[in-house]
Amino acid sequence: MLIRPRRNRRSATIRGLVRENRLHPAQLIQPLFLLSGQRQRTEVASLPGTFRFSTDTLLREIESCLAIGLRSFVLFPAVPDQHKDQTATYSYQDDNFYLQAARAIKAEFPDCCLISDVAMDPYSIDGHDGLVGQGRILNDESLPILGRMAVAQAAAGFDILGPSDMMDGRVGHLREALDTAGFTETGIMSYTAKYASAFYGPFRAALDSAPRADVNIPKDKKSYQMDPANAAEALREAALDTAEGADFLMVKPALNYLDIIALLKNNSTLPIAAYHVSGECAMLLAACQNGWLDYEQAMPETLLSIHRAGADVILTYFAKDFAQRVHDGRLEI
Ligand code: PBG
């Protein structure tokens, strides 16, 4: 045999020399759930190890992440029912605890990258990402609400906004609203190919943000999130978001959509983000808790797979665990 691929796998050092992909903690974004009030820190039952924090405890959590080299965060609010209405007015009120928390975070940690969520569902009594009317999700009527939300978030200091609502034309609408308000430097990480997935369950439980059970309200998000059967459509969404001024294109979820990640990576020069969503993390944790998988191996392998498929940036509930292991020298990258 002249050719023996195993020669390049002989030692840890040689494997390190020929390693094609390396995932660095600088490429990870930690999702964080925010509660109102103080001194709160409650675990999400369906996502063990992930907590919902009030602003005071969240600041300490962010401090501990920064200390191990994890510097980017995406923040989601769990909004008390009394603040929810049909038009999500609380989302752009100045005393909104989500906006206040962003101010506190950027005041204490100006160098961190703070990413928002732009969608109506946490603030909507209907639990949809857009405005509900006549039993449908109204597209164009949702845009001004999302625009106000976005400008309020930029004013509060978010570095990058994350429209996760999947309304048509929202990236362009947000870009224009931001520029008009003088926030030309605030970026947009667009949820470009966001699928109507079954894997958002633990997230909706953490925020109590699932679509409301009512005959007049669509019970799923299939009229705006993408059909899991489609791939070419992701390219159309990518072309639109790019033309409308997006700074990042995101694919969500990640693992069942590695082909979509690769497709966008090969067809765009924008950075590609992938959201390794709550249900994907929950599956792995459940198997590990049963002793069926080894977390120390399965977790980094999973994140590396998403990176290898073409994701430059990964949003994952395992970001802190990954960064911690790299920081401690327990995980070689
Ligand atoms: C809603 C939003 C969702 C997630 C992020 N933003 C849920 C949904 O679309 O219903 C899911 C993230 C996760 O499951 O980790 N705008």
Gyration radius, to the nearest Å?
Answer: 20 Å
CATH architecture: Alpha-Beta Barrel
* Counted beta strands: 12
The percent range for strand residues is 15-25%
CATH superfamily: Aldolase class I
Question: What series of H and E elements makes up the topology?
Answer: HEEEHEHEEEHEHEHHEHEHHEH
Distance, first to last CA: 32 Å
Bound molecules: ligand PBG
Shape: globular
Brief synopsis:
With 333 residues, the chain is an alpha/beta fold.
Characterization of the model:
- The protein is of the alpha/beta class.
- It has one domain: Aldolase class I (TIM Barrel, Alpha-Beta Barrel), CATH 3.20.20.70.
- Helices cover 36% and strands 16% of the residues.
- It has helices spanning 12-18, 55-67, 97-108, 143-156, 170-180, 201-207, 232-243, 258-266, 278-289, 295-309, 319-327, and strands at 28-34, 41-43, 51-53, 72-77, 113-115, 131-133, 136-138, 160-161, 187-194, 248-252, 272-276, 313-316.
- Helix 4 (143-156) crosses helix 5.
- It is globular and about 70 Å long.
- The structure holds ligand PBG.
List keywords for this structure.
TIM Barrel; 36% helix; ten-stranded mixed sheet; 333 residues; two-stranded antiparallel ribbon; alpha/beta; binds ligand PBG
List the helices and strands and how they pair.
Layout lengths: L11 H7 L9 E7 L6 E3 L7 E3 L1 H13 L4 E6 L19 H12 L4 E3 L15 E3 L2 E3 L4 H14 L3 E2 L8 H11 L6 E8 L6 H7 L24 H12 L4 E5 L5 H9 L5 E5 L1 H12 L5 H15 L3 E4 L2 H9 L6
Parallel strand pairs: 1-3, 1-4, 1-12, 4-5, 8-9, 9-10, 10-11, 11-12
Antiparallel strand pairs: 2-3, 6-7
Helix pairs in contact: 4-5
